[in-house]
């Protein structure tokens, strides 16, 4: 195991030894290979640079209580990449190739998998980009698939389940109703960079977007999905412009296993006043509770039009969901759903 101060890791890049690499050209994929974690040769005319022909995934490898290494639902990440690539008309590796290359990179960088006792993990970033030189606006005919790895700490850099604040922006949109919002493409994140910077400068941890058509309904955060607890009900938005989060889907299953009701439906912003707990959720954060959400007509405004408060501690139902999710991921409790894939490192 590498000599790394695991407790000081943030959610940022740490160089590892290898990435897994394969290219699609002339109708076929090259055999996957390991290359040093360094720069790769890509034409400056590649479609990914000019027309955002690229999509990616985020997943983690965990060292369990028994010392075994686990991946969490990798087939779901593979399926989502196939769907995103289809939206871009970009050649995509099969589900089998996707998983094989994830396993390949985990094994090659096994010394970077943090110990069980830490809150850190090995983050995997599967990336698919269009790479043939082009000038015209068209889908790329050649593509490159890579899987990278980096040990990471918590996304927020704070202690686990410490509530933060969020702001609703009604004058900045993440995705159009019939646009790319439900696909994990880089362009979606570019849309959120400027308003995120504004929100962070104002001291907010998260930025919550509303629907682009009416700005009356909650969509998702720039980095993750939204869910709330209302009584004994888990509620999350149902929208075709929201990314289908694997973490959110898993939490819904866990909520039902804990005897909770689950609702996927449009959520008016005003309904926040009726919520007991509010959270962001995703691979990087798992669950980040929110103590307050400020609603602003314009993000640039100094004073919110309304403030919704949820308490200074993580809510009990959100905590129970988090503990069950982490318990399965790290082998502390049984996995009755078949979500875990073991990697022999």
Offer a quick outline of the entry.
The chain has 345 residues and is α+β, with helices and mostly antiparallel strands. The protein contains six helices and 18 strands.
Structure write-up:
- By secondary structure, the protein is α+β, with helices and mostly antiparallel strands.
- It folds into two domains: 6-152, Aminotransferase class 4, branched-chain amino acid transferase, N-terminal domain (D-amino Acid Aminotransferase, Chain A, domain 1), CATH 3.30.470.10; 164-329, D-amino Acid Aminotransferase, Chain A, domain 2.
- Helices cover 22% and strands 29% of the residues.
- It has six helices and 18 strands.
- The strands form two sheets. Strands 1, 2, 3, 4, 5, 6, 7, 8 and 18 form a nine-stranded antiparallel β-sheet that branches. Strands 9, 10, 11, 12, 13, 14, 15, 16 and 17 form a nine-stranded mixed β-sheet that branches.
- Helix 4 (186-201) links the parallel strand 9 and strand 10.
- The chain is globular, with a radius of gyration of 20 Å.
């Amino acid at each position: 195991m590498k000599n790394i101060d695991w407790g000081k890791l943030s959610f940022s890049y740490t160089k590892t030894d290898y990435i897994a690499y394969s290219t699609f050209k002339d109708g076929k994929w090259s055999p996957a290979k390991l290359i040093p974690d360094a720069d790769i040769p890509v034409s400056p005319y590649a479609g990914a640079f000019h027309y955002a022909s690229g999509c990616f995934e985020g997943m983690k490898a965990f060292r369990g209580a028994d010392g075994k290494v686990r991946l969490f639902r990798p087939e779901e990440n593979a399926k989502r990449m196939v769907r995103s690539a289809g939206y871009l008309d970009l050649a995509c590796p099969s589900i089998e190739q996707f998983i094989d290359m994830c396993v390949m990179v985990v094994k090659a960088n096994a010394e970077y998998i943090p110990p069980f006792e830490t809150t850190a993990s090995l983050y995997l970033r599967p990336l698919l980009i269009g790479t043939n030189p082009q000038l015209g606006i068209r889908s790329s005919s050649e593509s490159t698939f890579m899987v990278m790895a980096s040990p990471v700490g918590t996304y927020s850099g704070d202690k686990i389940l410490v509530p933060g604040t969020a702001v609703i922006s009604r004058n900045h949109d993440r995705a159009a109703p019939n646009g790319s919002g439900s696909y994990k493409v880089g362009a979606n994140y570019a849309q959120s960079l400027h308003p995120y910077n504004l929100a962070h400068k104002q001291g907010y941890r998260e930025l919550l977007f509303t629907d682009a058509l009416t700005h009356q309904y909650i969509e998702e955060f720039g980095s993750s999905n939204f869910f709330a607890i209302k009584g004994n009900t888990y509620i999350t938005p149902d929208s075709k412009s929201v990314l289908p989060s694997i973490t959110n889907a898993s939490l819904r299953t866990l909520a039902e296993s804990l005897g909770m009701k689950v609702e996927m439906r449009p959520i008016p912003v005003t309904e926040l006043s009726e919520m007991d707990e509010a959270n962001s959720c995703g691979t990087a954060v798992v669950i980040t509770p929110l103590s307050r959400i400020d609603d602003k007509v314009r993000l640039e405004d100094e004073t919110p039009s309304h403030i919704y408060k949820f308490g200074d501690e993580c809510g009990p139902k959100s905590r129970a969901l988090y503990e069950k999710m982490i318990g399965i991921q790290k082998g502390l409790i049984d996995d009755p759903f078949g979500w875990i894939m073991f990697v022999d490192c």
